[in-house]
Amino acid sequence: MSRYVDGGGTICEDMTLDTLRTLSEYDGDSGEFSYLDQFSDLMVDPQKRSRIIYNASLDVISIDLESDKYCDVHGNKIYGSVSLQPFESKILIPCDFEIP
What we know:
The protein has one helix and seven strands. It is mostly beta strands. It has two domains: 1-31, no CATH class; 33-100, Sandwich (Immunoglobulin-like), CATH 2.60.40. The longest helix has 8 residues, at 17-24.
């Protein structure tokens, strides 16, 4: 997790999952994304930050990912652009893979 805003509006950045759990008192069941290593056609890049994208509007939006390649928490490859329904969000994990 790269950013957390507590109830008082304090912003904390570049923290580990354990630190987030301690600060927020939530996410007790959350885990790291190391299980993505089971997908032989994906290479997770731990040097790059994951992204959380969201749509806070009532309209469908499209987000251009430019040349970046990601996977979601299920190992699905994501590149090009992403469409999000109203109030939908996605966690994007930086990955390297061959684009079909």
